[in-house]
Fold Peptidase M23-like protein.
Amino acid sequence: MLKIKNYLTLKLNKRLALLFAYIFTTLAAAAQPAPEQGYFMFPIKPGVRNFLSGSMGEIRATHFHGGLDIKTDQREGLSVYAAADGYISRVKMSTYGYGNIIYVTHPNGLTTTYSHLLAFYDPLADYVLQKQYEKETFELELFPEKNLFPVKKGQIIALSGNTGGSGGPHLHFEIRDAEDRLYNPLRWGFKEIIDTTPPDLLGFGIQPLNIHARINGEFERKEFTPKKTNGVHTLPDTVFAHGLIGFELQTIDRYDDTQNRNGTQDVTVFVNNKQVYNHHIDRVPFELSKQVSQHVNYNVYRRTGRTFQKAYVDYGNDLPLYTAPQNRGRLNIQADSIYHVRLVAKDTYNNASTLTFVVKGQKLVFTQKLNGKVTKPQLSYEIIGNILKVNASDTSATPRNVEMVVNNQRLMLVPSYTKGAASVSLYDLRGGLPESLEYCGTSTPLNLQAAIPSGQEYSFTNRDMTIRFEKESLYDTLYLHAKKEGDVYTIGDFYTPLHKPVKVTITPGTPVTDKSKAAVYYLGQGKGRGMLGGVWNGNSITFSARAMGKFKVLEDVKAPTIKLLSKSPTQIRFRIGDDLSGVNSFRCEVNGKWLLMKYEHKTATIYSEKLDKSIPLSGKVVLKVKDNAGNEAEFVTTI
């Protein structure tokens, strides 16, 4: 009775969440600013045709792209113009992310941002340099007084560059409101950008969303390649389906005369000429941008790099992008019914591409006979949403049941359908976590440690670790694998996203020689290692994990490396690096006085900028570089 009550409560809460999300989306759409054509001018080569390497809403690894990436002729140093009258309200210098960035606030309440800059215009540059020397730091964030740096529309405020996380020279340009919601700049009507090219539809997927779902007779995600004929995309065959399903679309947009793969802003789904879903990526709250991992099929993205956008609203997704009041865009396929489906993908300029196909409802049919031969029994399983899918095959010509142990009780898992030589069984994990599967005399442990609910705090402990989930750590229920193999700790897998970090405490079995040099590292799928840090308490260390996967405690006892590249009375340059924990800080002094060193992480170089350009560098130079483990290297020379 308790399980039924909890399930009904969960279902009611999800329906209420859907209603509130729909109301919020409607209100947000009504509250967004009306774009006044001509209010903003184009910030790069205004009045001249230009091109974009990135557009609003483009799918990135951890976020939606929040503005425009404007090409700068593959070079640095182009003039950057203020898009409208206003004042510089914020300026920041950073090694990563936006790099050097200017924020200009305008009388209409909006703010434009200009990032990856090479240099600021003279009055601002002098102000920033003075503050850097006052605080003796390269990375700095400043909020000038309102009347300190007024700007006029068309005034040069900077030179374009390649600083921060930029992958090449360009200007990243944004339009934000006072709440840091990001808006599509192209809505303000820039004539410098020409686009008459409709989006490309590269792939289409259908995802089963409940235990009764079948797509072409199977409970598994199916992927199709649309065929384009006379400008219309179709699927080659009718799709046969049953139960609750959701559509996914891989689409990109290309602007005229360029091959860059940009984002498509709008996707609408019609079923039997009735709209059942729409997403419109024209505004993204900055703090919700990470929820891109629920907007796309994250599992497919992590495995293949392909971005299939869901044409339904997944649970845990709070983005105000959707209009899908009926069933969150999910389609419940009934047997013997016909569904004429039309997906329309549009870019900012309303260039559209259409995909049409037919879904025919199909009754669930169980075939007793197996086709195919196997030489020995085989068993495999996977988890899709809340469903455990078990594939079993042996030398028998007819399907056999799989025995499942749940709460020390043996249950028979009856096949749901057959596929070739295998019988496929489905089990809803909300009924209890299986401990093992037994088939043809062989037991297979599942190692499902716990069902971690979303939307509430939860603490999990086994003999190897303690994991504390915050209220917003998960998007949906997590069926947790957590284990230790040697010195490597595994939590979940690479293919399930976290919304907010989790706190993990482990006690390494291998003694740590120097805890001040030891930290937890995230082990990527390749050879990459990312330092997460951690706080020691006795022999245990607690760290914050922003993604699930594999973790290991490593000791960094090697100091950073320093190489002098050039020196002169006008400037000194070094290459610095660290092979494990990464560079944390650096300090350069000439005759005991601090010298500003700018850091370009993409080339691992630091280079000086003098406060007084008229005074040559001369004397003893001492550079000290620390890594994140506290190791320090020192380099001494003279100019």
User: Anything to note?
Assistant: The CA atoms of residues 416 and 425 lie 5 Å apart. Residues 1-30 have pLDDT under 50 and may be disordered.
